[in-house]
Amino acid sequence: MSSIPHNKLTGALRRQSVKKNVAAIHVSGKLTLLQRKLSNVLLLNAYDTLVTRNKHQIDARTLCLMVGYNSNDMDTLKQSLRSLAETTAEWDMLDANGRQEWGVSALLSYAKLSAGVCEYAYSPALAEKLHDPKVFALINLNIQRRFTSGHALALYENCYRFLRTGSTGWWPIDLFRRLMGVEGSAYYESFKHLNAKIIKPAVAEVNKTSNILITPELHKMGRQVSEIRFLIKENPQLAMLDIDDGEGLRQGAVYLALMDLGVSDRLARQWISEHGEDYVSEKISYLKGRGGVDSPVGYLRAALQNDYKSEKSAAPSPKVKAAAVLRKAQAARNNAAEEERAQVVEEERKARAAIMARVQEIADSRSPTQRDADRKLFLAWLSDELLKSEFSRLGWKAALCASEMQAFWEDLIPDAFSEKTTPGD
């Protein structure tokens, strides 16, 4: 697949108009919030070489931290990668010749962890679809971090790519249930329950959290709701949310100069964000003054990192000095924020581990008959289908259900988590 010229890019990569016949990739909604975030981080990491490389790599510990896992929690990462390999992406659209095309693929064709590195791949057909901005829009990770509900993030992903057309178009209710990961649930067969537990909370979080505002509309066949669509518009609070999808940077002369040198979109935006336009522009001028450089991108990277200077510019301008001070201050803030986030993640991990240890202790203290009854009672007690699926698979070791397990046992055995309470009390 040939590369797409920058001036012809659409969707999230260029933020220009998208053809009205927006194609859709529907991903099964049976992913937890963290698994869905993991999927987006992997895609963003691979995007620049999505159709030119067969496999992609990312440091496993960095990946864990980016999606909210403890950096040593490889078991959870393995489970999540397994879930992505078992999840299907389905598309139904017009191909380049105007013919109808339907396809299905595993979200990841494979993944492996080796020597602290996560290696993974997409099927060639899915990679082409994910790389085409007319088909699929990258999700901004600054926005993604704000979501606390997997259903809300799933709804956002499925609405965001239709922003330029203003509407998702009508979805059959069965398709919507599948996108939200609740198909096959007798509870959500009732539209009253679907609306109260899924649609209303998800819409509220999307409108509060993201850069779009959505409004659901219903179509009835008789007295039954048969279809749903979402009207979509930009969130006027965008500036207040401090969300930057790169549109401003892409309009600048420095960004365009980097494009001419062959720098990728993601790397160009990263360099400008980290170093500032003036500093990057200075190093581009330095590079052009060298002449005959075999690898302009590699040389420019070194110039930025090592602050290469020409003999004529031994003393940096006050503007460049100020930019350097700002860069150092921003780096210090970023490091402090990362350390704080890592500390919060570690505290959450310890709290969850303590809950899980106590849950296992209680479960082990029960008789075999009680244990069977406890499992059935807890499954009936859960209302979230994703949590039910996780518990059915892992039992009392399902860390995703930790807070629900604590509430369940405290309801069943008052003071179950009190230090003075023993399993036999």
Give an account of the 3D structure.
The protein is α+β, with helices and mostly antiparallel strands and 425 residues long. The chain is built from 18 helices and nine strands. The strands form three sheets. Strands 1-3-4 form a three-stranded antiparallel sheet. A three-stranded antiparallel sheet has the order 2-6-5. The longest helix has 48 residues, at 318-365. Mean pLDDT is 78; it is low at 1-23, 239-245 and 420-425.
List the helices and strands and how they pair.
Layout: E1 25-27, H1 33-46, E2 56-59, H2 60-67, H3 74-86, E3 88-94, E4 100-106, E5 110-114, E6 117-121, H4 124-131, H5 141-144, H6 150-160, E7 171-172, H7 173-179, H8 191-209, E8 212-221, E9 224-234, H9 238-241, H10 247-250, H11 253-260, H12 265-275, H13 277-290, H14 296-306, H15 318-365, H16 368-381, H17 385-394, H18 402-412
Antiparallel strand pairs: 1-3, 2-6, 3-4, 5-6, 7-9, 8-9
Helix pairs in contact: 1-2, 1-3, 6-8, 11-12, 11-13, 12-13, 13-14, 15-18
